[in-house]
Amino acid sequence: MNTLFKQLAALCVACLTLNAVAQAEELKVMTSGGFTAAYKLLGPQYAASSGDTLETILGPSMGKAPEAIPNRLARGEHADVVIMVGYALDELIKQGKVDPASRVELADSRIGMVVKQGADKPLIDTDAQLRDVLLKATSVAYSDSASGVYIQNKLFKKLGIEQQVGPKGKMIERTPVASAVARGDYQVGFQQVAELLPVPGVIFVGKIPESVQSVTRFAAGIASNAQHPQQARALLNYLSSAKVQAQVQSTGLDSVPH
Question: Where is the signal peptide (predicted)?
Answer without folding.
Answer: 1-24
